[in-house]
């Protein structure tokens, strides 16, 4: 039997294993990953739900393609599960709480450990300096300094500032994701 249907519909009914792109969102607990995820779901799918405390899997439609998104809880006890996701990851986002100078050194070590995994070598990396609306938010140059990002070379990475609460800067993140997902399909 032949089936002729819109490409978007066919992609929608494909099982998760056949999906092309996987987007992983990591970062310390309280950084704002689930808040960002809810914004992305709303923008890409017109849908959102309350941020949860557990690892959560989403299916986004980006550029007519289905993208699997994993928003993983960042508490210490959950970080050991992170490498289980690395093999399939095409695009990586690491979220920072820009108001928490003390925890940026922890975030630096955690990011460093994540990037040691070779499965992620080819994944474009977006570091999100979140909570720019809050008082005490650190400047981009301070974040670069405290995170040691000037030493992060030999990979496709970029740093963007945003407030997932107010929505400021989120569109820029959306554009970055769309561009990278497009790049993966070429
Ligand atoms: N001021 C401000 N608060 C934010 C922003 N984004 C998230 N928050 C708050 O930060 C807290 C943590 O946000 P979550 O999105 O749950 O953080 P998470 O990174 O998913 O945390 P875990 O799931 O515990 O790893 C919540 O109280 C959010 O409302 C932001 O841009 N500005
Ligand atoms: Mg969360």
From TrEMBL:
<dbReference type="GO" id="GO:0005525">
    <property type="term" value="F:GTP binding"/>
</dbReference>
<keyword id="KW-0460">Magnesium</keyword>
<dbReference type="InterPro" id="IPR027417">
    <property type="entry name" value="P-loop_NTPase"/>
</dbReference>
<keyword id="KW-0519">Myristate</keyword>
<dbReference type="InterPro" id="IPR005225">
    <property type="entry name" value="Small_GTP-bd"/>
</dbReference>
<dbReference type="GO" id="GO:0016192">
    <property type="term" value="P:vesicle-mediated transport"/>
</dbReference>
<keyword id="KW-0479">Metal-binding</keyword>
<dbReference type="GO" id="GO:0051649">
    <property type="term" value="P:establishment of localization in cell"/>
</dbReference>
<feature type="binding site">
    <location>
        <position position="34"/>
    </location>
    <ligand>
        <name>Mg(2+)</name>
    </ligand>
</feature>
<feature type="binding site">
    <location>
        <position position="74"/>
    </location>
    <ligand>
        <name>GTP</name>
    </ligand>
</feature>
<dbReference type="InterPro" id="IPR044612">
    <property type="entry name" value="ARL2/3"/>
</dbReference>
<feature type="binding site">
    <location>
        <begin position="130"/>
        <end position="133"/>
    </location>
    <ligand>
        <name>GTP</name>
    </ligand>
</feature>
<dbReference type="GO" id="GO:0003924">
    <property type="term" value="F:GTPase activity"/>
</dbReference>
<comment type="similarity">
    <text>Belongs to the small GTPase superfamily. Arf family.</text>
</comment>
<feature type="binding site">
    <location>
        <begin position="27"/>
        <end position="34"/>
    </location>
    <ligand>
        <name>GTP</name>
    </ligand>
</feature>
<dbReference type="GO" id="GO:0048731">
    <property type="term" value="P:system development"/>
</dbReference>
<keyword id="KW-0449">Lipoprotein</keyword>
<keyword id="KW-0342">GTP-binding</keyword>
<dbReference type="Pfam" id="PF00025">
    <property type="entry name" value="Arf"/>
</dbReference>
<protein>
    <recommendedName>
        <fullName>ADP-ribosylation factor-like protein 3</fullName>
    </recommendedName>
</protein>
<keyword id="KW-0547">Nucleotide-binding</keyword>
<dbReference type="GO" id="GO:0046872">
    <property type="term" value="F:metal ion binding"/>
</dbReference>
<dbReference type="InterPro" id="IPR006689">
    <property type="entry name" value="Small_GTPase_ARF/SAR"/>
</dbReference>
């Amino acid at each position: 039997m032949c089936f002729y249907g819109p490409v978007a519909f066919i992609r929608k009914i494909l099982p998760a294993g056949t999906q092309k792109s996987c987007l992983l969102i990591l970062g310390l607990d309280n950084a704002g990953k689930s808040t960002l995820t809810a914004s992305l779901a709303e923008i890409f799918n017109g849908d959102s739900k309350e941020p949860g405390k557990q690892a959560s899997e989403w299916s986004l439609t980006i550029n007519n393609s289905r993208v699997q998104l994993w928003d993983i809880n960042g508490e210490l006890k959950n970080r050991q599960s992170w490498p289980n996701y690395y093999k399939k990851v095409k695009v990586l986002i690491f979220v920072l709480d820009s108001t928490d100078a003390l925890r940026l050194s922890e975030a630096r070590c955690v990011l460093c450990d994540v990037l040691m995994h070779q499965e992620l070598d080819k994944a474009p990396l977006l570091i999100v300096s979140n909570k720019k609306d809050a008082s005490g938010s650190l400047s981009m140059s301070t974040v670069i300094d405290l995170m040691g990002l000037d030493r992060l070379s030999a990979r496709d990475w970029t740093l963007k500032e945003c407030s997932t609460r107010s929505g400021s800067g989120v569109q820029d993140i959306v554009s970055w994701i769309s561009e990278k997902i497009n790049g993966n399909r070429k």
